[in-house]
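re: ur question from earlier - yeah i can do the single chain one, its not a big deal. heres the input i used so u can compare w yours
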Amino acid sequence: MIDKLFVDSNILIYAHDADAGAKQQRAANCLRELWGSRRGRLSTQVLQEFYVNVTQKIKIPIAKPLARETVRNYAPWVQSLI
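and the output i got, formated as tokens:
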């Protein structure tokens, strides 16, 4: 059985924050591993928090169209967490 892992919004934010330094690389590697193993899970709330933070609150914000595309890419991870 493959364990599912819930991804916190901070991991998503760090992975897409160009100003996050070493945290960015670690978070991106974590997400790549979860994507490849199909073990990552998210909630709608996490995706909402991600969008608001990367478009408004980080030092170098991401353009809204790119942030929306990123949310769409992670949408398959929003499944039953049971």
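Residues 22-37 form the longest helix (16 residues). not sure if urs matches, ping me
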